[in-house]
Specification:
The protein has 184 residues and is mainly alpha-helical. Helices cover 59% and strands 5% of the residues. The chain is built from 5 helices and 2 strands.
């Protein structure tokens, strides 16, 4: 009886030491996207985040300034921080099937928190809508603090998730790959 040799360790970014009980083939490996696909998708992620964090904020600052609303932060700072966050987001996506995924996610989430904190300090504005038409009356108001608090909560949840991923990858290397990229 001849056995096939297992694939070379270089074929996989992470050696799956853990094998789930439902996988009976001794040579089965998780099927994750190729490096080319991950790089292409990382570029798309970069472009999307770049537009949202680099192109859009300076335009909004320009619109606010032209309408007489003073803005206390420089659009140039938004460009630098947004470019860094876009690059981190692309790296985070590309590193998904590797052990670096969790640590890159932690750095990305901490950078997002710093970005949101800087915006929080610089944007003390409040929006309100008075009256709702008809016989109803009232005021709906939402401030930047509320909007940024919601975004901060999302970043904190992502930070906790990435800490968990990092600890899981350290404790049981390869286990996450079987759930993220199941054998077909």
């Amino acid at each position: 009886m001849t056995m096939e040799s297992p694939p070379a360790p270089d074929d996989f970014p992470e050696s799956p030491a853990y094998r789930p009980p439902f996988v009976t083939d001794p040579f089965a490996r998780p099927r994750y996207p190729s490096l080319t696909t991950r790089v292409a998708m990382g570029v798309l992620v970069f472009l999307g985040v770049f537009v949202v964090l680099v192109v859009l904020p300076p335009y909004l600052v320009h619109v606010l300034n032209s309408n007489g609303v003073p803005v206390t932060f420089s659009p140039g700072n938004l460009v630098y921080a947004g470019t860094a966050l876009a690059a981190l987001s692309a790296a985070y996506y590309g590193a998904r099937p590797t052990v670096a995924y969790g640590p890159i996610g932690i750095v990305t989430d901490l950078s997002e928190l710093a970005y949101l904190y800087a915006l929080y300090l610089a944007a003390p504005y409040r929006f309100s809508l008075n009256g709702f038409g008809g016989s109803a009356s009232g005021v709906v108001a939402i401030g930047w603090a509320t909007i940024l608090l919601i975004l901060v909560v999302g970043s904190l949840i992502g930070l906790a998730r990435n800490i968990g991923i990092t600890l899981e990858d350290l404790r049981r290397p390869g286990e996450r790959l079987w759930r993220t990229y199941p054998v077909r």
